[in-house]
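> @MW can you paste both from yesterday?
MW: sure, first one:
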Amino acid sequence: MHDPLASLGLLALAVFATIIAHGRGLLVRMGIEAVLLLAIGTYLLWRGSSPLPHLGSGSSGLADAWLRALVVVWWLVGARLVVNVIVFVRGRDQKSREARLFSDLASAIIYITAIWIILNSVLDLNVQGLLVTSGVIAIVLGLALQNTLADVFCGLAIGLEQPFHVGDRISIGDSVEGVIVQMNWRSLRIHTDDDDIATVPNSLVAKGLIVNRSVPTRHRVATVETVAPAEVAPETILDLIWQATLLCPSILSVPAPSITLCRTDLVSNTYAARFSVSDSSIVAAAKSSLLRQVRRLFRYGGIGRPHPMSVGELLRSLTLFEALSQEEVDRLARDLIVQSVSPGDTIFEQEAISSSIYVIEAGVLELSRESGQSGSRVLGRIGAGEYIGELGLITGSPRSFTLKALTHGKALELPGAALAKLLHSNAALNAEMERSVRKGLAQIHRDDAARDVAPTDQPADLFAQIRMFFRV
């Protein structure tokens, strides 16, 4: 005789074990399910039955009902254990764990198979007849859900081919570009550069042109076109555009930018700058920065102007000297010392005494600092229309960086004595000059160098030194 209390106790144990396993780690759940599966299977074999189809000895009455319940539990626990094993095996690959499409598909197949066995072999229900009867319903549902089914099967095809993974940056045609944050049965969720979440059906993904921006690297190549007057020698324009790429920190030096003349006519020439950046998200910013630098270098190079920019005009265009009159600017221009530089020439060395301000008339110069065991570190670059050295001149501290030329160019040296003499004769300029120095601290591409030159962390002390310098 079969004792129904033993079966009831195992059923209660199964319910209790399921509650205990809920919320636990995957390995803990797998261990509890394996022990429960072994216990129920051992009990069934001991009672002369088996959970496998058509192998158990049938019984009748209440005992048979309890045994059937145990077999149902055995199949459900077994299906759950197999699903967890699949999740554990695929979970070792981070991308496979995030792309849950195949794990969900395998789980669905396992559960459907287990339920079919339970209905057909354990509970002796005529599943085949039920399937035939529901054929018409299946056809109707298939027609109603054809778009959803298309997304599902396209998702399966994408999962088999694996052209991308969660975390990759992709573009789909000309409509969507961004980083994949989720892949599921029906669609992709893409985090765009506009900080939106775009949901794209898998059927559209499968039909569209997919470009994976993360493979083999996240580097992105971009092109910017510039128009210049035809009367200017192409060599001059090519050199200025190349200098502009050197002044854009986001443009990679390897591979080197490529500057070409792509179109020409009687009035103007069109030039193309092809460059690389580290990530697609900064392409727009890199293009904008390059165009601004090209425009600035064209201005200081005299491109598109009726005559080249004079030294006086160069000084008047600088923030530091915008408060000076034309006569005062001319006096400063007469005191300038012109230095023609070639690539590799040193303008001044680190730890040198600060005695002059340098205004860049042409070319690109690089600021670097030697820092012990770590070697030389690049702080930044400056080009035509920028200046350096005013804070060190005012505070009297040694240079904290080395200034070297990257290209051919000209640097205009303004001795500190000439500036002090000019300001001494016009005390009303002190406040204006202090304001200019404040603006110079925030000037683009010079923040790091400005902080390095300043020997004090207290702005009040710094500007007290500025006022003292101006009133010498």
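MW: second:
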Amino acid sequence: MKRNVILLHGLFGGLSNWEKVITHFQNDFNIHIPLLPIYNQHRENILEYLVSFLQHTIDSGQMEKVILVGNSLGGHVAIIYAHRYPQRVEKLVLTGSSGLYENYTVGSYIRRKDYFYLKERIEYTFYDPAVATATLIEEVMLTLADDQKCIRIIKTAQTTQRNYVTALLPQISMPVLLIWGAEDKITPPDVAREFKKSLPDSTLVFLSRCGHAPMMERPEEFNKLLEDFIC
């Protein structure tokens, strides 16, 4: 029986972020890429809401155990879920995860109609600015053009920056792989080292010439590391 892998995207991420991972693993694993309901209206803390959504996704899919792979916000959600439901998580993979420190302040106002400003902020995510394609920039601008979505993004970013997982990490006992961009400017290398120090059973690998989204910027190396860890 194929094992279940759940890929969790970041705040400005989407299903397309995992395209190379899906292609590489889809024949050997059941790959699930839920679209995190960041823009839904709800009364809960957004992280609690997303953890509940993940729990519903796993239950409704009748998955007894899963491998969680989370980037940025997705990693934050995966950490909380793995701590709360350790019996449901076989292995955990974090890449550029939030939860300790993020060098990316989102205030109450985003210059969402300023193409060149947004282009610069999106390029900041990567080591190679060419990864921030015109299509990617246009997708972000389209999202931010929606008033309600923009508000939800601001609130989500502010919540994650106030929510620290430091106390949870020593209690996460399953194997954890940390795949980190050596040039990640949003969650810098020291953040990865802090995760490594606090997680009891963890392995840390840095990818050179790589920023905040290794599965997009260094997909071959990312997939090889992931394959060695979960196969």
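> thanks! The chain has a mean pLDDT of 93.
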